[in-house]
Automatic annotation (TrEMBL):
Keyword presence, Signal: yes
Protein name per its UniProtKB record: CNA-B domain-containing protein
InterPro entries given in the database record: Choice_anch_A, Collagen-bd_Cna-like_B-typ_dom
Position of the signal peptide: 1-27
Any Pfam family: Cna_B
Protein species of origin: Listeria aquatica FSL S10-1188
Sorted UniProt keywords: Signal
Top-level lineage group: Bacteria
Gene3D superfamilies noted in UniProt: Collagen-binding surface protein Cna, B-type domain
Disordered: annotated span: 623-669, 690-710
Domain CNA-B, first and last residues per copy: 344-430, 439-525, 535-619
Amino acid sequence: MWKKSTKLLVALVIFGGSFISGTSSFAAEELAYVPKNPGNVYDDFSGNYGLLGVASKFHIFAKDKTILTAHVNGNVATKALEAYNNFGTDIVEGTLPFEVNYIQETNQLIASSEISDTSTRTDKFVVGSEIPVGEADGHPVVNGTRLDHLSVDDLYQEKEGNHYIDFEAEFARLGSVAEQLRQTSAIKNYTAADFPDRNKREIDLTDVKDKTNTVTINLDAAVLTQDTPLTIKNPNDVNLVFNVMHGSNDLAVQSQIHYNDRVNHETENFDDANVVWNFGTELAHLAVQAPFQGTVLAPNASITVTQNLDGSIIGKDVSIQASTNRWDPNPIALPKATEQTLEISGEKVWQDLDNKWDTRPESITVNLLQNGKVYDTQEVRANNDGKWLYHFSGAPKMDANGKAYSYTVDEGNVPEGYVKSVNGTTITNTYQNSTQTSISGKKVWQDFDNQLNTRPDAITIELLQNGEVYQTKQIQAGENGDWTFSFSGLPKYDASGEAYSYTVDEVDVPEGYVESVEGTTITNTYAKKPLKNIQGDVIWKDKNDEYDTRPDNVKVILFQNGKVFRAQEVDADLDSDWDFDFTDVPQFDADGKPYVYTVNEGNVPADYDSSVSGYTITNVLEETVMPEPDDQEDDLPDSRPDGSVDGTTDGDSNRQINENAEGRLVNGFSGYSNERSAVEKITAASPRVTTNSVAVSPQEKTKQLPKTGDADGKRSLLVGILLAGIGVFLERNGISSYSENRILIWKVEIGLLSGNKFG
């Protein structure tokens, strides 16, 4: 009563919410519930179903994909389903008590799929773990489609990683079965030439009466490509396997199959389903283009059905474009001639440090190979003692011709990270730890920011694994100037489970550098400290030390970034130059920045003003030590006379007064200059006449210069003083220029020196 009330309440809620009567598309989340766990297909089918196994319990058994565009009267087991029409075995005789459908993935279903439960039928509809499911009005909702013929109790959903049917394993076994059947001794062989009358083609097996044995018949594929019926008479209901022999990857069946006067129809009675068509494992595409009866075994083929077909359809992909009917085959077995069997046992051994990294799977698949092809498979797990043992029984010892089979074992899917080896029936898995790591680092340069241009364009880094070179990599500066490197995909552990030790080093350290390594940082330090010399001089502007004011030496101080770095005493050398030289001073600091060097004078001599330009120190004698010069001194270039001055009495010793290359007025007397010396300046300030030395011509060598105290000397002195005073007077009153006065004085001086009388 409670269950019915709950369902009624749910129905009312859905109806009042988003359910619209007559539609069949629902969001799975409208009413979430957890379907039952389906378990394994062998929990539902535990009997002996012959060589085809559980595949014989489904109308369509597809490894990959099934597309239904026509009505399918039968159940489906497929990895992926697109159903544009309904499917499910119709209840006809009421003799089929249980039906299973299995769909791992789907993007298309219709609401009328499957047949409702009855008192004679129970449904089990199994879907994959990734398909969204729900409930609406007591019916299951699968991927948004409400299945109106099923109740929520009919829906099962597998858990992630646990498939209801392992298609890979099943089809590996079915492929082996297909090949085994083709290797048996056929009781008959047919080709197209065996049917001369195309309209009366018949295979009569009336004389085959052993119902306990499976009979194989080899049939050339060309027999099925003819567009006339092929009749098969099997009155004794012997299990028949037709091995279709073909040499092409594609086959189109155009022959209608008539079997024991049976017609294609819906049924739940499969007792007479004794025909299997074995197309082997080489066929890639099979098209059934004529009405067909019997199970189709083409495990590696894509099968397209465009005409009615009764029987099981076993293939890689299945496309149904015409109505088909379920007709489950009776169990088939290998011919009795091969019934002498072998027992094959073995063990799975793990070498993974007792599962140190928890990498072992819960189970593995061991394949028994018969003449190199899979004959049987077995799921193997650890027993109570931790051993992984397997055992195959009933393997035929010999084929139909009495030739012994060769059996070997192999592992189906080797677990990730393991390497397999097989010795007899012992399968060993050795773990190659796939855990990876990476190493990153950088190269640091301590070389004054490469201002000496000593860095190479690229360097080579080597990665060492436990001290041995494992990889090398060439690196260079990136866009931002950084030198970085990385090694990825490195194994973290060795075969013993010990972690590898990784270090880095540099190959061929550049010349001049010293390498140091700390972790993954490689530092190259330039070992040669760049040095330079600081040279300069001290210049004196003091009238060539006319006043004897220069010291014997001065101290020059060298500053590094504004701080005293060195000092040096400087004096005059043999050429009277005051040069200094600071040798081997460093160019850069530890960060590669160039040092700034300046110089200055330690103690500036008294009465001097000091100035610095670059590395030149200039000491200028203060003007207070020297008398003020005439104001007109700088007018000399504008007022110098050009021409000659006659300073002799007889006119034969004329001297020229001209500008020389330095712009100074010079006269013809050797060593005479119009540049005013300090003494001249003093003379100008206090009317005193300075005596310039002159060169006397040869004619005048005999003449004596006037002596002090002589009448001529006194007269010359008085005249000089007088003229000097007159000159100063004239200059200060703007009457004449300094140069004009100097010319006058020169004339007087020349005259006095030559003995001329002025007055």
